Amino acid sequence: MLAKVSTLVAASLALCNAFDPVDGRPNVDFDYEIDEDKLKSRSVIMMIPDGTGPNIWALARNMVDPTHKKMLHIDPLFRGSVQTFSNTSLITDSASSATAYATGFKTYDAGIGVDMEKRPLGTILEAAQARGMVVGMIVTSRVTHATPASFAAHIHSRSLENDIADQYCANANLDFLLGGGKRHFSDACLAKLKAAGYTITLDKDELAAYRKTNEANGTLRMFGLYQKSHMSYEVDRIRGETNEPSLSEMTEHIFAILKNNKRAQKHGFFVMIEGSRVDHAGHSNDAGTMGKEAIEFDNTVSVVKQFVYSNPNVAMISAADHGTGGITLGRDGVYKWKPEPLVKQVMSTEGMKALFSNDRATYTEATALQKVKDLIIQNSATKKISKEWDAIFTAEVKKIVANAKYSTSKLVVYMGQCISQTAHIAWTTVGHVGTDVNLYCAGPSVFTRRCNGNHDNTHLNHIMTNYLNLDLQPITLKLRGYKPNGNQTAAPASTPIVSSSTPSTTSTPESTPVITSTTLATTSATPVTTSATPLAIPSSSYPTTSPGVSKPSTTVWAKPTLKPGCINVSVALSASELLGTRQRKGFMKLFRKYCSSKKSPIDCLYGVDVPLVLMNSFNTHEETVRIIRKYRMHNLSIHTFNQGKEYIFISNVDNLGATV
């Protein structure tokens, strides 16, 4: 009898352990052999819910089901958190945060794919494309907006969206790009895309038709531009007034084609998906719209999860770039908040503003005030405007009626705050906040176990590039005009990627400087070598026809003369990981100990990110690795110069043991 009971208990435990109790997915061992098919290529999907701080997931979850019987699709994937600060502020903007994700280096707010000196940094998307992988982005903002631009463009200011569009068209290195922002693509720019073999889809029906035509053969060469500016909020889109696809629909269509793409099957893919407009609703303090944007992002996570679970070598990583709005679920000392009023909201405050503005020229103060009240009451659960809000709206419409040029941006925020108060929700800002954001991961455990814990935002890039075995440094060197043949043409710190255009959305694209395809574009036919072999970087230089981009210096750095047994090692440090004084002294001590030269000169070169430190130092690769690990300086790249030979790159210190 006891034996039977023991057998039943053992069988029950085995059954329980076989499936995840949260989402029912079969558990997998952390064994690499079980977890991943080594014969298949690896791929990564990065998902960014822009502006979605931790509170927004609670907001969305309660809007989906206030009884707490349902979870979000993303909930079981929670792994840790991410620090979001930039190099210039504890509260980042989307450009610097996305640059950290794309390049692995922090930069200043507003910088797109550039370092603190405005020099280009290679991105994971560009490195993946150079490897021959399929690459693309799906967003609900303008495709030229800060987050997508940081993965595929290099420019000193996020406001130069015409120039960013021109870079997309000149490089033609994306397999697909879907979102809004058609106004930034000139006719000449679109003509370049069509000449490069792209199909341009302009609405939901054309996207569906493209899938129908190309799903079987897996052809992906398409730009989707579905609005002049940002795509519509989900709460407005579902009213059917525009023929736009949702984020989940765009993702589903692309993945249906991607699964049959021969190049993706052979080399893998990198896809960035952004739920862009969660952030915009946060700036408007529009809680109902913000929650529904987060829910649609979660619907997209469901599509991605199904794809990941069906493909053993595909990994997904998701984190917001920052929080927005500083939303509080509860206010005024009252221990409650009500999601139901937000669920009943059927129009964004941005949509309400548009309806209000239609008749602006005819308003008196009284009719303007009544219009504001009617829009709120008709499109939300707010049934009565309080005296407090009546006074606020009265003061605002006076300014609007008195001055035809007066902005209605404050009115949008006041509408959002009024509706939020009905749900017992408050806001602390109309800007970004400095909180950590949630980190979610799915896929092979060799990938997901690296996500556990709290990370700097640059580390997410290292997680992805490590998994894909990508090295971004050759891309950066190519962008800066470096040549590998012993003597190299170094691009000094004064070589920024800038534009002669002023930050304007109406500048003429033909007159703005463009980084041409000879500079930034790479093709799968000539992938950049990432293994420990002599590096072959195309010897292209900056285009001389672009006045906003300086030509590299012609200064030639001579090869160092080495003592027998010495190797020169240059350690590229990110701007946030510079050696402290104590560590520098430690390194100098090691130089003198291990190198036959007692002087061990340090020459500063302008290099890959911040100045490279050239050190006559260690005898072997193994010794280099030991020292770097001793000082816990992970996430660095080590470049080794052997006497009389080409230099080689070894990417990511964590993998050096296997590479040496």
Task: Describe the SSE topology.
Elements: H1 2-18, H2 32-35, E1 43-48, H3 54-64, E2 78-83, H4 94-103, H5 124-131, E3 134-142, H6 146-152, H7 161-171, E4 176-180, H8 187-195, E5 199-201, H9 204-214, E6 222-225, H10 234-237, H11 247-258, H12 262-267, E7 269-274, H13 277-283, H14 287-310, E8 314-319, E9 323-324, E10 328-329, H15 340-343, H16 349-358, H17 365-379, H18 387-402, H19 409-422, E11 425-426, E12 432-433, E13 437-442, H20 445-448, E14 453-456, H21 457-468, H22 473-479, E15 488-489, H23 517-520, E16 556-557, E17 568-572, H24 581-594, E18 602-605, E19 612-616, H25 621-630, E20 637-641, E21 648-650, H26 656-659
Parallel strand pairs: 1-7, 1-8, 2-14, 3-4, 3-7, 4-6, 5-6
Antiparallel strand pairs: 2-13, 8-13, 9-12, 10-11, 15-16, 17-19, 17-20, 18-19, 20-21
What is the structure about, briefly put?
This protein is of the alpha/beta class. It has 26 helices and 21 strands.
| Average predicted local confidence, pLDDT | 78
| N-to-C CA distance | 59 Å
Write down the overall geometry.
globular
Give the strand tally.
Answer: 21
- Using the CA coordinates, give the radius of gyration: 27 Å
| Widest sheet: strand ordering | 5-6-4-3-7-1-8-13-2-14
Helix content: 25-40%
Which structural category do the helix and sheet elements fall into?
Answer: alpha/beta
Strand content: 5-15%
Specify the number of helices. 26
Major β-sheet annotation: 10 strands, mixed
Organism: Aphanomyces astaci
Keywords: Hydrolase, Magnesium, Metal-binding, Nucleotidyltransferase, Phosphoprotein, Signal, Transferase, Zinc
Family: Belongs to the alkaline phosphatase family.
Cofactor: Mg(2+); Zn(2+)
